[in-house]
Structure formats: C-alpha cells, structure tokens
Amino acid sequence: MVGLKEKRDAVCKSLSGGQKRRVDLALGIIGNPELIFLDEPTTGLDPQGRRQIWDVVRNFTALGKTVLLTTHYLDEAEQLADRVGVIIKGRLAEVGTPREMGGRQRALARVSFDLTGGLAGQPLPEGLIAEIGPGVATITTAEPTRVVVALSRWAESHGEDEIPGLSVARPSLEDIYLQMVAASDAEGVEG
Description:
- This protein is of the alpha+beta class.
- Helices cover 36% and strands 20% of the residues.
- The strands form three sheets. Strands 6-7-5-8 form a four-stranded antiparallel sheet, covered by helices on one side. The protein has a two-stranded parallel ribbon with strand order 1-2.
C-alpha cells in the first residue's frame, strides 16, 4: 500500500529518508484505525513517493476513515482535504473547504495567453484590458468565461483556431494563504 514491496526484506536503517517516511505511514495504518493523524507525511519524498502517499490517504478516506493531516505543502492540502484549517501565529485563522478559503471562489481569475503567430501585435477585443509582458497577455476578471469567448472570437478573426498558451486560474490555496499572512502581518504592524 505504501510502495515498499521491493524493500520488504531490508533493515529499516538501510532505507532512504523517503522510504522511512513510508514505513512511518505503514505503521500508522496497521490495525485499520478509524482515525489517523499524519504529521507532514510527504516531507522528504520525491514526486512519485508523494503521489503514492496521496493515494494511500485517498484510499484510507474512501474506506470511511478520518485523516487529520498537517502539512506546509498547500497543494497537498488542496488535493487531499475536505476541510482546511489555517493557523497563523499560533491561532486558527480560518476553517473551510479548500475552494472556500479566503473567498477563493469569488476571487478574480487570471486569463493568460501567448501573443504569438497571427495574434502578435493585434489590438485586443474592445473592453478587454490586459497586462502585456514579453509575448504574454494577462487579463484579470470576474467573468473568465466571457473573456475566453471574446478571445476565441478575436483569435478566429485573426486566422487562429486556438489561443496559444491559454490558461484560466483563480488564486491557489497557497496564494490565499500568503494573502492571509500578509493581512495578519499588516494588522500586527498597525495594532
């Protein structure tokens, strides 16, 4: 379950740091507990090992078990957690789903795309204002679907079937966390 089958005959002290972390997890789930506490279970793991641990956590919760996970990897919390609690300066600052934290679902989206091919140097559709960087444009909006539709028509009118490098993103959980910490720091300075 934790990806150590090939090491079943190895002595624990001969294992790598990441393999030892997997042994820790295996020991934690022996006995099929209803509740398991995992403190930074993927620290020191390579990306493959990290994903294996994520799968173990998902399998465990799919069985109806509860996992309390502490992590500094907010992408991990975003992938695994049903609910997240953010602690800032030793105090619980907010609790909610990863999508709700810090008003994420209402946060402005960033629509980015490459200004290459037939789109290079072309004025954007009326009403769209973008930050233009070297070969890239970014539009910050509350209406990303409307913006993508307008951009699709614009690209098509300039002979492009696709919008190169198109991405639409709302702030990540890490972005929201950093905003929360900055706000907390600002309150501390003023207070």
